[in-house]
Amino acid sequence: MPSKSKRCRVDAVVSIDSKGQIVLPKDIREKAKLKPNDKIAIIVCEQDDEVCCIIMTKAENLGDSVRSALGPMLEGIAK
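Above: the chain sequence. Below: its structure as tokens.
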């Protein structure tokens, strides 16, 4: 069975409020199957001591599959 294609895209641009909070749009929460009280892991990539990329994923998804999916992208950033 062929594997499903993987892709990254910008689905939304959100603002940070005065408390430093953001709201994930409902359609993105639904696509990601996020529910109240789910935990989100924040992955920060740095280049030259500056944050160049912030990635969010469900905490339960951390593991070998996430590392293998992010590995090539993270290597590209580091170069």
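Helices lie at 26-31, 64-78.
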